[in-house]
Amino acid sequence: MKQTLFIQFYGQTGSGWFDLCNGFSDTWDLCAGKGDFLWIPLELNPDRWYDETAYQPLPLPIEKGTIYVSASYVNHLYQAYLWALTYPELQVIVGGPVASERHTGKPGWQSVHFKVENPLPKNLILTGQSVERFFGVPEFSGQWRLELPPQIPDEGRIYYSYTLENQCYWKKCPFCSIAQHSADHFRKRTNPDLAFTGLDYHGHKIVRLNTGSMTPEHIRKLLPMLPVTSDMEYRFFMRAAAAETRAMKEAVATMGDNLPDCTLGFGIEFPSDRMWQYLNKGTRMTDVLKTLEFCTETGFKVNANVILGWNNLTEQDIRDLEGFMQRLSGKTVTTLQLRWLFAHPYTLIYDTYDGVENSIRLGPFNCGFHVTVPPDQMELNLAAAQVIKEQCRKKEIQLQGYKNLNKGQPG
Ligand code: SF4
Q1: Which of these, 329, 261, 326, 333, lies nearest to 304 by C-alpha position?
Q2: Which residues does 126 contact at the CB level (< 8 Å), separation at least 6?
Q3: Distance (Å, whole) CA 123 – CA 87
Q4: Can you tell me which atom of ligand 1 is nearest the CA of 212?
Q5: For residues 103 and 171, is the Cβ–Cβ distance under 8 A?
Q6: Alpha-carbon torsion (317, 320, 326, 330), positive or negative
Q7: CA-CA distance, 186 to 193, in Å (whole number)?
């Protein structure tokens, strides 16, 4: 075993598929020349991410030297912190989506997904940049030679990412940490080569096309290129807005019946024109409905993300929500994912909402908080939850996350 290790976490989700959390996918080849890879299984249930008792300083095969840790989720970062404490002679260098993205402000830069509240161990380094930049080579210049953990069964299902860019072109939503990514570290794949298709795995593959939100350019260029095979499906986020719908219609028109199996995630947030304006979503009810309906006609599945926990709802918003849900035809939305508003550090919501006293911490890392809202607003939010629950039942939309709504409530 070399004295340099590249550590990549993975885990099996509640749905049975394996999330490869593969921060090293593009750079596996680059790193393989510098050390050994080690896959480590770690808790994937987000309900346990913030529970410090769920973690131990898992034993490592080396005690001196350097480990590079790819942190896709904040619990990966916490695991790296525990290793730095346990192995003081080991240099622990953390990159990956959680530690590589910067928020720039005063003083200097911070990692965008958390605040560091206490001094870190001296042997723990957060890169604040991509692996390529860290090693001084051009972005996306490596071969895609990801090797899978041997524990994954041949006939299983895996989920992995193919990064298009590390930001969101829209960048305007006040609750979103992706909107805070520093432009200094913009990383964009200018020539998508579909390298993910070369993965040596015969089971089912779920490929996440990774960007904050697909641009109309991505949609026109990439959608017709996606290989259509029975063992491959795609997931990506897109704005439900007029420009994206136009681009999708143009792309689909060139594809005939050769359509890939796609699930599109939409940040619906709260379906009322007034709320979309407040949230800078740049869309409106008619355009959102057109986007979702076109997905249904095409055969794409829709995952609608709705947020509750707003402190400014009106009775009219609830009526608009009800109207939106009623106008959805039975099959327009496959899954509706409900969550309580989370205040990510550095966002406007973090600076302006109540709840900071309930901050969620993992060791020295402050990860943000679930907002709290005054009683009259709580009533409106819960009324909205009831409308959603009832309409999902009527339209046979799979509702997820309903039980998590109590996270923002006092007590
Ligand atoms: S469109 Fe999505 S990814 Fe982009 S800023 Fe808004 S919430 Fe964030």
Answers
A1: 333
A2: 94, 95, 99, 111, 120
A3: 9
A4: 3
A5: no
A6: negative
A7: 19
Ligand 1 contacts (CB < 6 A) are 168, 170-173, 176, 178-179, 212-213, 239, 267
Phi first, then psi, for residue 157 (nearest 5°) are -125, 135
pLDDT at 231: 96
- Helices marked H in 188-241: 216-222
Enter the tokens of residue 386: 């009831």
Helix H or strand E segment including 40 = strand 36-41
Question: 135-175, pLDDT tens digit by residue?
Answer: 999 999 988 888 999 999 999 999 999 999 999 999 999 99
Distance CA 123, CA 90 (A): 7
Give CA–CA dist 91/88, Å, rounded.
8
The predicted model scores a pTM of 0.94
Give the integer Cα–Cα distance in Å for 289 and 308. 20
How does pLDDT run across 354-385, given as a tens digit for each residue? Answer: 999 999 999 999 999 999 999 999 999 999 99
Domain ranges in the chain are 4-135, 262-408
Question: Which atom of ligand 1 is least distant from the CA of 175?
Answer: 7
Residue of the nearest CA to atom 5 in ligand 1? 171
Q: 405: which 2 tokens?
A: 């709504």
The answer regarding whether domain 262-408 maps to CATH 3.40.50.920 reads no
C-alpha closest to that of 239 among 305, 297, 182: 305
- Can you tell me which atom of ligand 1 is nearest the CA of 169? 4
Angle CA(26)–CA(42)–CA(44) in degrees, nearest 5?
A: 90
